Amino acid sequence: MLPGMNGFEVCKILRREMDIPILILTARADEVERVVGFEIGADDYIVKPFSMRELLARIKTRLRLYYQLHEKKSTESSDTEKSREFVFRNLVIDVIRHEVRLNDEPLSLKPKEYDLLYYLAKNRGRALSRELILEEVWGWSYIGNDRTVDVHVRWLRKKIEVDPSRPSRILTVPGVGYRFEG
């Protein structure tokens, strides 16, 4: 009910471009609307009428969770930066040397393959959409579609998976994108 675009479109854009808590405040109380709100990236969905105390409590809760998550990520990234290596069993990503080793043998990766693997490894366990991967690995100026992510994942799987047709490191998350398990 916003002018120009609806709240769901705004939510999608915010989720794609920013890592912030998103609360949807609406008069739409239908269960389908609430589910859609969560599926497109909302962290909370508040239906009118609501009290100001409840709204403030929900905002405080979302901010607390957001800051706890970012403190944990910050600690993890500073630990990773100290070691400068990501080690996943027999796969090692050496950030300083800009090299990947499998079973102690260097892998020949194209620059975007390395960038993609590094980005996935930094976000281990997180389901990442193709669009987010495109933004983070290829950048805003990339002109093309998200199928390039699929192609690069396929190339990486051929190089790092025991059986690329049954991957255990880079998993497909249906309807979302990919998740790196190491």
Outline the biggest β-sheet.
4 strands, antiparallel
CATH fold topology of the largest domain: Arc Repressor Mutant, subunit A
Strand content: 15-25%
Q: Strand order, main sheet: write it out.
A: 3-4-5-6
| CATH architecture identity of the largest domain | Orthogonal Bundle
Globally, the shape reads elongated
Structure description:
By secondary structure, this protein is of the alpha+beta class. The protein has two domains: 70 residues, Rossmann fold (3-Layer(aba) Sandwich), CATH 3.40.50; 97 residues, Winged helix-like DNA-binding domain superfamily/Winged helix DNA-binding domain (Arc Repressor Mutant, subunit A), CATH 1.10.10.10. The protein is 48% helix and 18% strand. The strands form three sheets. It has a four-stranded antiparallel beta sheet. A hairpin with a 2-residue loop joins strand 3 and strand 4. The longest helix is centred in the middle third of the chain and has 32 residues. It is elongated and about 60 Å long.
